[in-house]
Amino acid sequence: MLAATARVAGDLDVAEECVQDAYLAALAAWARDGVPDKPGAWLTATAKRKALDVLRREKVFRTKMPLLVEPAEAETTDEPAGDDAVPDDRLRLVFTCCHPALAREAQVALTLRLVCGVATGDIARAFLVSETTMAARVTRAKKKIAAARIPYRVPEAAELPERLDAVLTVIHLLFTTGHTAPTGAGLVRADLVDRAVHLTRMLLALMPDEPEVRGLLALLLLTDARRATRTDDSGRLLVLEEQDRSRWDRAAIAEGNQLVLGAFRTGRVGRYALQAAIASLHAVAPDYAATDWPQVVRLYDELLKRWPSPVVALNRAVAVSMVDGPAAALADVDLLAADPHLAGYHYLPAVRADLLRRLDRPAEAADAYGAALDLVDNEAERAFLTARLTEVSEAG
């Protein structure tokens, strides 16, 4: 809805206000007349109509009061349309929001909030910062767009590569937010996952020679192939070791594996292709213990060279525990505990707790599970950690 309205308004702030006004109009109209057969179409049409009203008012203002009008007239009309470069409204808006005039984190945060509808708190968790900090970043990005008079203009084909990395980051974070929802009762937000996969497919059609686009689609398919088995019938979280691999989506795995191979054949392997290769090793292993863990560790080593993230280092520690044992991995995790970026990241104490449990140190494991519970907001993950805490407490 926002993307369609932005195309009419030519301004993201105006489009956002019109969408909000459309929702307010719906509250009154639907209470009076009933919900229409196609509520989404009704909202979109109303928001676009309000955008046209705004444009008409601005036109009248400029016509009647020319002395008050700034000389830069309708910047959107001065820019080449370039609509043919990106054929989908939503993907077009993603590229537009990833404007190089904005800092990378502002590009990604603004796009996730405005285009993808991800809550500010969930974006903050993805960036490992507070919700207040993230809200300020989104506000500053919107003000900068307005102050710099950045128009809603679709970048031309030649401009797409410089925005690609930010676009890939947006889609990846959209997927991870859906794969394990930061808040709420359910483990997965299927709408966000499906939207991320759809956007990546369109991106691959648009830029078929970019290996990182192939890598990202492969990563999403191989990871989401496990969706049906990540919880049991009662919604209880099942870790990778417990999942029924016969129920994994084999078609998605086959497609993902082909995409990984295609990305590696280009010789330009990036972080998404490397992550996809790790996911592929999990997907083809007959069971958890039989996974090629040494190769997983080597891939994480390569990934850390390209993307030195503490989250990647934590995931590598899990793989190290399967090769060299939980004591070796615990030493790595304890070093990571000093990284302030992971201070509010509940997976750090959760991984530590699991390693201590495997080392038969139940009292320390219980403390770590308690620390993880203090940080987690997803109910399925909370239930899992609570069960593990009960288990180690009874063992101690």
UniProtKB/TrEMBL annotation:
Domain DUF6596: 163-260
RNA polymerase sigma factor 70 region 4 type domain mapped to chain residues: 95-145
One of the record's GO molecular function terms: DNA binding
Pfam family, one: DUF6596
Source organism, top-level taxon: Bacteria
GO biological process: DNA-templated transcription initiation
Domain RNA polymerase sigma-70 region residue range list: 7-59
Keywords recorded for this protein, A-Z: Sigma factor, Transcription, Transcription regulation
Family: Belongs to the sigma-70 factor family. ECF subfamily.
PANTHER family: BLL6612 PROTEIN, BLL6612 PROTEIN-RELATED
Protein name: RNA polymerase sigma factor
Source organism of this protein record: Micromonospora terminaliae
Organism taxonomic ancestry: Bacteria, Bacillati, Actinomycetota, Actinomycetes, Micromonosporales
